Amino acid sequence: MKKIRCAWCNLDNPLYIEYHDNEWGVINFDDHYLLEMLILESFQAGLSWECVLNKRESFRLAYDNFNLDKICSYDEKKIDELLQNKNIIRNRLKIKASINNAIIFKKIQEEFGSFGNYLNSYTNGKNFYETDRVSSDLSDKISNDLEKRGMKFVGTVIIYSYLQAIGVIYSHDKECFMYFDKSNV
């Protein structure tokens, strides 16, 4: 029997199916993962998630497996190297933002003990169940705070997508085999 998935999932792309079935919407507050997804989501601005996802492994290689300390120390030489890497999205503003955002991510870790704790300060450990949205009061608040702290490419739509990806906002379509009724939770 064929599984029904969310309408956005390209069934011709095995990476997308794997991501949809095993990662998207699954709660994950590991700071290493949170940094990876924040960087990848910021590269999505103006592009499709599928485009970013298809380049994910190349991003992992180019970004030292999303090692926070290494990214925080990237210099102009590393930026030039990233700009020459044809396997990733080569946008100078996004590359510079990813480094800047990593530095701010680290400051948030120091302030809250972890980036996951920072996110939980907005959610009180709760999950949200909603579909057919691209932003919310929650994504507005987190986005505004991250922008005040100096992060770039973290508008409310990007942060909403980020919160969906890491499982804070659960948005599988009602027809999707991954959907479950929140009243049963």
Please outline what is shown here.
The chain is an all-alpha fold. 55% of the residues lie in helices and 2% in strands.
Polypeptide structure, described:
This protein is mainly alpha-helical and 185 residues long. It is built from 10 helices and 2 strands; from the N terminus they run ααααααααβααβ. The chain has helices at 14-22, 31-44, 49-54, 56-62, 68-72, 76-84, 92-112, 115-123, 137-148, 156-165, and strands at 128-129, 169-170. Strands 1-2 form a two-stranded parallel ribbon. Helix 7 packs across helix 8. The chain is globular. The two termini are 27 Å apart.
Distance between the termini: 27 Å
Radius of gyration: 16 Å
Question: Roughly what fraction of the amino acids lie in strands?
Answer: under 5%
Count of helix runs = 10
Strand order across the biggest sheet? 1-2
Largest sheet: 2 strands, parallel
How helical, in percent, are the residues? 55-70%
User: Could you list the spans in which at least 5 consecutive residues all have pLDDT below 50?
Assistant: none
Counting DSSP E segments of at least 2 residues, the number of strands comes to 2
Task: Give the overall shape.
Answer: globular
Q: State the assembly state of the protein chains.
A: single chain
SS class = mainly alpha
* Overall mean confidence score, pLDDT: 95
Give me the strand/helix succession.
HHHHHHHHEHHE
